[in-house]
Amino acid sequence: MFSKSANYHSTYHLYEDSSLERLDAQDDVLEIHFIEMKKFIQAWHEDKVNPLDDVLVRWLLLLGMVDARKQRVYDEIYKELEELAMKDDRLLEAFTAWEELSQTPETVIAYHSRLKATWDHELSLRHAKEEGIEEGIEESKKETIRNGYENGVDVTTLALLTGYGEEKVKAIIASFA
C-alpha cells in the first residue's frame, strides 16, 4: 500500500492546506492509522515484533490470524495467541469469542451433540449409582431379615429394624424357603 514506508503501522495527522502546517497540539485531535497486514505478518515471521511487550502486536495477530482471501487460518499465529491469551485476560476473552463466532453450523451441532452425550453419560452414571445404593440397602435389609429370622427374632421386631411392614417381612421370609 505504502511502498515508500517499511513500517507496517503508519500514523498520519491533519495539516492546514494553505500553510501546510500541523494544527496546534491542543487542536490536533485526529490521527489516521494505517496497518498493512502483509508487512505486519512478514515482520512477525522475521521476529521483528514482540507480542509480549506490545499490546497492538497481540491484537494485530488476532486480526491477522485469518486470511479470508485465501480462506486460511495461520496455525503458527493461532498457537502463539493461545499462549499469549493465558497472560492477557482481554485477549483471552476476545480469542474465545472469536473461536465461538468462527464455528460453522456443523461444528456447533457437533459440539452440542458431544456436550449432550457427555451430560447423558454423567446422568446415567449418577442414576446407576443411586440405583446401586438403593439395591444395596434393599439387600442389606433382606440380609437383616434372614439373619434375624434364623436367630429367632420375631416379625414385628424385624419390621421395626428394617422399616418394612410386617406383611412385607413375612413375604421376604417366605422367599427364603
Account of the protein in words:
There is one protein chain. The chain is mostly helical. The protein has two domains: 9-102, no CATH class; 106-176, no CATH class. It contains seven helices and six strands. The protein has helices at 37-45, 55-64, 75-85, 89-102, 105-150, 155-162, 166-176; strands at 9-13, 15-16, 21-22, 31-35, 66-67, 72-73. A hairpin with a 4-residue loop joins strand 2 (15-16) and strand 3 (21-22). Helix 2 (55-64) crosses helix 3 (75-85), helix 5 (105-150) packs antiparallel against helix 6 (155-162) and helix 6 (155-162) packs across helix 7.
Task: State the shape.
Answer: rod-shaped
Number of helices: 7
Distance between the termini: 96 Å
Strand content: 5-15%
Low-confidence stretches: none
Name the average pLDDT.
Answer: 84
Order of H and E elements: EEEEHHEEHHHHH
Oligomeric assembly:
single chain
Biggest β-sheet: count, sense, barrel? 2 strands, antiparallel
Name the structural class: mainly alpha
* Major sheet: arrangement of strands: 1-4
Roughly what percent helix? 55-70%
Radius of gyration in whole Å, from Cα?
36 Å
Count of folded domains: 2
Number of beta strands: 6
